[in-house]
Design brief:
Nucleoside Triphosphate Pyrophosphohydrolase; three-stranded antiparallel β-sheet
Length: 236
């Protein structure tokens, strides 16, 4: 695969045809989305000997020999609301070099001073949205996801206890918002897109558009893929 094909990205995901929607798959039962049960099942299924493997491991573009993958981590914050768990997401600002304007989890590249990838996720979440580590209960690290921008991203699944006040880094984060976990764990909302790049290489990605107050938040790419992996983990 050429350097051009390996790095080519989807310019407008909304314009890429939807080829299927997973209406045939069952949503995760509401009882399984309760915090007390989530703690138990996530820990059990992510044990080294449990045999669970993620459905999506990367953007579909394998790194070639000698092409380094840079470690990174994101926090997958599950906010404990009276109406049920909500996923805290951000929309990146439009001027950023990578993934401008996209929906993402708070996170970023691993710093050599970070003690672990969990520490990376917590530090980045504090820097980007002002979320304090004391309000975060880390549950587990999910398997890594490899991105087209050559990051090896570790999603850190965590519970967040309100109340809290966010302080957004306005250079990186345009806004923060919450989506009900039950919505994202319903595969009837998972849309699969097929895309062929300029050199004929076929790829696919999943999207989970969320509508609120007349606006669409277009969740796709690595963020949607990690949420799809979370669905598979909780539905197993």
């Amino acid at each position: 695969m050429s350097e051009r094909a390996r790095r080519e990205r989807v310019a407008d995901p909304c314009a890429v045809p939807v080829v299927r929607v997973d209406h045939h798959l069952d949503p995760v039962a509401p009882a399984r989305l309760e915090p007390y049960l989530l703690r138990e099942q996530v820990t059990d299924r992510l044990r080294a000997d449990a045999g669970w493997v993620p459905e999506r491991t990367g953007d579909g573009l394998p790194a070639e020999a000698g092409d380094p993958l840079r470690p990174a981590a994101v926090l997958v914050p599950l906010v404990q609301r009276a109406q049920g768990l909500h996923v805290l997401l951000t929309r990146r600002t439009d001027h950023l070099h990578d993934h401008a304007g996209q929906i993402s989890f708070p996170g970023g590249r691993h710093d050599p001073d970070d003690e672990s990838l969990v520490a990376t996720a917590l530090r980045e979440a504090h820097e980007e949205i002002g979320l304090h580590a004391q309000q975060v209960e880390v549950l587990a690290c999910m398997p890594v996801y490899r991105t087209v921008t050559h990051y090896e991203v570790t999603p850190v699944l965590a519970l967040v206890q309100p109340p809290f006040e966010l302080a957004l880094d306005d250079f990186e984060v345009a806004e923060a918002f919450e989506v009900p976990l039950a919505f994202l764990m319903n595969p009837a909302h998972h849309r699969w897109h097929a895309w062929v790049d300029s050199e004929g290489s076929a790829r696919e990605f999943v999207s989970m558009p969320w509508h609120r107050d007349g606006r669409e938040y277009y969740i796709w790419g690595a963020t949607a893929a990690m949420l799809r992996n979370l669905y598979r983990l909780l539905a197993a």
